[in-house]
Amino acid sequence: MAHQTYRGYLARHVCAVHTRCLVMADLRHSAGIMANHHRQLNHGVVGGYSFGDEAEVRLKFSDNMKPIAEIKLGQSIELLKELHILTRDGKLNQDSRRKLKQVYHLFHFIEPLLDEVLDVKQSLTLADHGAGKSYLGFIIYDLFLKERVSKPISGHIFGIETREELVSKSQQLAIRLGFAHMSFLNLSVEQSIHSPQLPEQIDIVTALHACDTATDDAIKFALHKQAKFIVLVPCCQAEVAAILNKNKNQSFGKTPLSEIWRHPIHAREFGSHLTNVLRCLLLEAHGYQVTVTELVGWEHSMKNELIIASQKDIPRKNAQQRLEQILQELNLEELRGRFIY
Fold first, then answer.
1. 110: Cβ–Cβ under 8 A, 6 or more apart, which residues?
2. Residues with Cβ within 8 Å of residue 215, at least 6 apart in sequence
3. Which CATH architecture has domain 77-339?
4. What is the pTM of this model?
5. CB 76: neighbour CB atoms within 10 A?
6. What per-residue confidence (pLDDT) applies to 333?
7. What 3-state DSSP class applies to 289?
8. How confident is the model over 64-79, as pLDDT tens digits?
9. How much is the pLDDT for 304?
10. Segments making up each domain of the chain, as ranges
11. Burial, 269: exposed, middle or buried (Cβ in 10 Å; 0-12, 13-18, 19+)?
């Protein structure tokens, strides 16, 4: 009788407290709540913890066991923690959720290109130029290549970065995760083009948020390596805007178009836009079919332009001519060596 009374007390009072705790932990699935209540009630009868301890223990248990909807099935949680996309206790904050969405969205565009390479041959090579911490390379390996390298398919991902400390950290992480088909190279652009550590031909070249002229470096590398696909998310293009500003007075007497960049904010925005237009014309002059789109919504990142180039070996006839005309008209002829080769 006493046992039933005590059990009733727990059902009326303790479960209500636990329900509020679980709601605070975002565990709203009714079956999960019932299962947790059942465990809590039985535990309370045995008397292992005080009511406060029990609520704390169950709250921690619920948090740890709760799946994160944004994480793809089979994704390495350890990798996401190491990349600081997940916190040490396995959670997403607002900033890391945006970062994860961007990387996943870019993978969504790259995955069909990987499949297309493997449709033709049973191996692929991908080089991430200006890799930084190699977010993209690790995600591609984890979601795509990890399960395939044990099959007749072979593949390798190269991260190319000029900062030695980032290369070293990426090497150590790949070893810890057992990602044997990843290499990280501390090389400049010129070194990467001619290095014996890289194959003569690379299937896919990527550059995610490679700042300023680093995107142009990735394009130069990709063209030398005869890449089948080039995937670029440019960032912080300042070079063209700086030259527009430097030649502003001369341009006023040359073309009325100089009004487009007369004000500094317009020069910055126009220079950034123009840089990507010139890059697309360069790629088309080398026989690539170019698609330009948004990576994610503008609310997530202003560095949002995605350029995908597919080698078709059919150069656009007037692409180089248009490049030369634009550089001449806008008084940017000193950039000829960067965009025409």
1. 140, 204, 206, 231
2. 130, 207, 232, 234, 235, 237, 279
3. 3-Layer(aba) Sandwich (3.40)
4. 0.77
5. 19
6. 95
7. strand
8. 445 677 788 888 999 9
9. 80
10. 2-65, 77-339
11. middle
